[in-house]
Amino acid sequence: MELEDIRREYCKGGLRRKDLLADPVDQFNLWLQQAIDAKLTDPTAMTVATVDETGQPFQRIVLLKDVDQRGFVFYTNLGSRKAQHIEHNAKVSLHFPWHPIERQVHITGVAEKLSAAENMKYFSSRPKGSQLAAIASKQSSRISARGVLEGKFLELKQKFAAGEIPVPSFWGGFRIKPESIEFWQGGEHRLHDRFLFSKQQQAWQIDRLAP
Ligand SMILES: Cc1cc2nc3c(=O)[nH]c(=O)nc-3n(C[C@H](O)[C@H](O)[C@H](O)COP(=O)(O)O)c2cc1C
Q1: Ligand 1 center–CA 201 separation, angstroms
Q2: Is 63 in the pocket of ligand 1 (CB under 6 A)?
Q3: Are 163 and 187 in contact (CB under 8 A)?
Q4: Which of 78, 119, 94, 74 is nearest to 179 (CA)?
């Protein structure tokens, strides 16, 4: 099989302006629910793109943990590469690739750190193993061997065997306040439907884009 021959038709139906909800976050929530109902693998997984100080883009997947009118939330290590990028340039891009339902959503916006109270609320809801791993892993730093990580994990497991695990100061969430949200629905003959919501002061402008 040649890579050139790998293709498929998109035929799950179009997206018409009359079917769009007026608010893009409501529209996103509708599509997210449909992605969950369709039993997609990791429906909340999104790619986050950031740029480093030279303008070099980087991308990685994180899990969406909350979304409302204020924005899209994910949690991470605050010393990680992505967090360092955001420190320098808070403009980020998010992308949801929902292949089986022939949809993607693309978001641009500005990242801001969550409050300590929000971090604590989510951290305390996580399984203990995830809490320990968050402390054990100095995310994005170079390590000599996997054993270093496992040793640290075991050490922390013993240390916190009885009591609660405090939220580490170097761990927390970001909320991406959206400035644009684009909805893409695959169409027959590559005539896909795209609608771009762009924030204009308080209102959202809606434009159809060529595929
Ligand atoms: C399905 C999936 C979910 C992930 N979820 C998260 C997450 O919620 N937070 C996180 O920090 N990393 C998550 N990761 C790991 C990141 O993709 C990435 O490797 C890590 O955050 C380090 O990125 P950085 O070095 O660019 O900061 C996830 C990876 C995958 C494949």
Answers
A1: 32
A2: yes
A3: no
A4: 94
pLDDT, one tens digit per residue, over 169-209 is 999 999 999 999 999 999 999 999 999 999 999 899 999 99
For a mutational test of ligand 1's pocket, the pick from 62, 74, 143, i.e. the residue with the most ligand atoms closer than 8 A to its C-beta, is 62
Q: Is 103 a catalytic residue?
A: no
Helix (H, G, I), strand (E, B) or coil at 39: coil
Instruction: Indicate whether residue 140 lines ligand 1 (CB < 6 A).
Output: yes
Question: If you measure from the C-alpha of residue 134 to the centroid of ligand 1, how many angstroms do you get, rounded to a whole number?
Answer: 11
Structure tokens at 197: 């919501």
Instruction: Tokens for 18, please give them.
Output: 């009359």
Q: Compute, in degrees rounded to 10, the torsion defined by CA atoms 22, 25, 28, 30.
A: -70
HSE, side-chain direction, 13 A CA sphere, residue 88: 14
DSSP-derived 3-state class of residue 206: strand
CA distance 85 to 21: 33
pLDDT tens digits along 46-102 = 999 999 999 999 999 999 999 999 999 999 999 999 999 999 999 999 999 999 999
Ligand 1, from 50, 64, 74, 76: best to mutate by most atoms within 8 Å of Cβ?
76
